[in-house]
């Protein structure tokens, strides 16, 4: 698999992490335990994490702890990723949407390391569940090898976040 495809997978994962806190807690059943799991599938690879800590239960403004994402983050194949920040999320509970402030991620495949940022990433709640799906977004290269694409676009629904 080409590095660009793996980078797309991991970059989308980072965005998923950021939007993860966008669940409507009060209107959708029992209160969440301030944790989020994530899955991103792109170009035939899947990246996942479980039990990342969130500072508050949605729909309150919430920050996802990047360290707790990184502690369980794994990707299929030979790609790895690190979330470099603690993204903050705001929610519109009535509309079933959320937005993240900034996602900063570093992706490594073999000997190639690339960093990307995305801001204002939107998420849409899946029905009345605590799962959110990403809206289309583009992450821009912030540093890395000349082999790194200048930007990567994630398709809608290629990432999900589930709060519990």
Structural features, described:
The protein is mostly beta strands. It is built from two helices and 14 strands; from the N terminus they run αβββαβββββββββββ. The strands form two sheets. Strands 3-6-7-10-11-14-1-2-4 form a nine-stranded antiparallel β-sheet. It has a five-stranded antiparallel β-sheet with strand order 5-8-9-12-13. β6 and β7 form a beta hairpin.
Sequence-ordered SSE layout with sheet pairings:
Elements: H1 3-19, E1 35-42, E2 45-53, E3 62-63, H2 66-70, E4 74-75, E5 79-83, E6 88-92, E7 97-100, E8 102-109, E9 112-119, E10 122-125, E11 131-134, E12 137-144, E13 151-154, E14 159-163
Antiparallel strand pairs: 1-2, 1-14, 2-4, 3-6, 5-8, 6-7, 7-10, 8-9, 9-12, 10-11, 11-14, 12-13
């Amino acid at each position: 698999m080409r590095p660009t495809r793996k980078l797309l997978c991991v970059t989308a994962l980072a965005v998923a992490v950021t939007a993860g806190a966008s669940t409507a807690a009060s209107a959708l059943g029992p209160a969440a335990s301030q944790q989020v799991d994530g899955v991103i599938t792109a170009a035939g690879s899947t990246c996942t994490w479980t039990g990342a800590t969130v500072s508050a239960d949605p729909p309150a403004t919430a920050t996802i702890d990047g360290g707790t994402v990184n502690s369980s983050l794994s990707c299929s194949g030979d790609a790895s990723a690190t979330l470099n920040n603690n993204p903050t999320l705001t929610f519109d509970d009535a509309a079933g949407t959320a937005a993240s402030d900034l996602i900063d991620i570093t992706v490594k495949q073999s000997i190639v390391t690339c960093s990307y940022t995305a801001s204002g990433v939107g998420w849409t709640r899946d029905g009345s569940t605590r799962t959110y799906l990403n809206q289309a977004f583009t992450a821009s290269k912030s540093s890395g090898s000349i082999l790194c694409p200048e930007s990567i676009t994630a398709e809608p629904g290629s990432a999900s976040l589930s709060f519990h």
